[in-house]
Amino acid sequence: MSPHAPPLHGSLPPEGADPACGGPTPDRFNPPAPLSAWISGIGLIAPGLPDWPSARAVLRGEEAWVSAPSVLPAPVILPPAERRRASRVIKLTLGIGLEAAAGADVATLATVFSSSGSDGHNCHALCEQLATDDRHVSPTRFHNSVHNAPAGYWGIATKSMAPCQVMCAFDGSFGAGLIDALGQVVLDQQATLLLAYDSEYPEPLLAKRSVPDCAGVALRLEPTRTAQALARITVQTTEAPVLPLQQPTLEALRATIPALRSLPLLECLAQGRSGDVCLDYLPGLQLAVRIEPA
Questions:
Q1: For residue 9, is it within any domain?
Q2: Chain-centroid distance, C-alpha 139
Q3: Mean predicted lDDT score pLDDT of the chain
Q4: Is a pLDDT exceeding 90 seen at residue 137?
Q5: Quick check: 269 pLDDT over 70?
Q6: DSSP string over 43-68
Q7: pLDDT on residue 9
């Protein structure tokens, strides 16, 4: 009997098989090979952190974090018609993506968009409309409601025809996006832009999904070291626990906005040091990240 065949009714699973489904038992002592790439650009927008240089100063301890709403740049790169339709999430992803891609030909970058829920305000507006007697939804609301809307606007803005992935893994969306982006860099040897982002929900949805504000982080990942390389990143799965950030205000951001589960990684990059950090991923499974400055 093949070790991948399902067990016969009333029999024990074949040797080496997972009792639940007859497949191979996961080898927890031999995790998959680590994935590595070079980080050549960083983009960030978060509450009190309007861009990467500002965030870097806070993460280095040079400046105190000051509470403030996320500041979203005007999407001037979009044509006028699309600019008028751009939602908060569209402005957010364009802002972080263009910051991370500075100095690169953005049209050639593969992209991975990853979000736990995408556009909370648009979802709220649709629910409000559907709760009325007039259930007609505006075309703009409808096309902005799909999870890949930010990727579509990115393609329009940058005229990119490069490969694009759009993902969602609830609170593990940053980790899922990072793994996918690194996989593309390693397998396809193509520079890839990871954009992880989240949006707040107005009440009453906010009471059920308490993301306090929109925020996002973008990483430009390269297969080889370039003149713009900041650090080498190596990632593999681990069962080690995630440690909280030492700054309580930043830890609150990390814990409440899924995209900012990346903050321990960003802190290491901001401080320009070699180090190992552990990032939240899936329940019972984290990501061990090694950073080595260029």
A1: no
A2: 27
A3: 89
A4: no
A5: yes
A6: EEEBTTB-SHHHHHHHHTTSS-----
A7: 36
Tokens of 266: 């960003």
* SS3 at position 288: strand
Domain of 190 in residue numbering reads as: 37-293
Angle (CA) 239 225 285, round 5°: 10
AA letter at 283: P
3-state helix, strand, coil in the chain (%, to 5): 35, 20, 45
Looking at the chain, the whole-number percentage of residues with pLDDT higher than 70 is 89
CATH code of the domain containing 261: 3.40.47.10
Q: Do 288 and 276 touch, CB atoms closer than 8 A?
A: yes
| Token digits of residue 144 | 């902005």
- Distance between CA atoms of residues 43 and 51, nearest Å: 7
Give 120's pLDDT tier (boundaries 50, 70, 90): confident
Neighbours of 79 (CB within 10 A): 10
Omega prior to 14 cis, within 30 of 0: no
Does the structure show a pLDDT above 50 at 180?
Answer: yes
- For residue 220, tell me if it sits in a domain: yes
pLDDT the model gives residue 27 = 52
Instruction: Give the number of residues written for the chain.
Output: 294
The answer to whether residue 163 sits within a structural domain is: yes
The count of structural domains within the chain is 1
Tokens coding 62: 């040079």
Mean predicted confidence (pLDDT) in 238-267: 96
Helix 263-270 vs helix 52-59: angle between axes, to the nearest 10 degrees? Answer: 80
In 143-244, the DSSP E strands lie at 164-167, 192-198, 215-222, 231-238
Run of H or E residues at 185 = helix 173-188
Sequence-distant (≥ 6) Cβ neighbours of residue 226 within 8 angstroms: 38, 40
The reply to whether 194 falls in a domain is yes
User: What are the structure tokens assigned to 84, written together?
Assistant: 């008028």
- The answer to whether residues 172 and 120 touch, using CB atoms and an 8 Å cutoff, is no
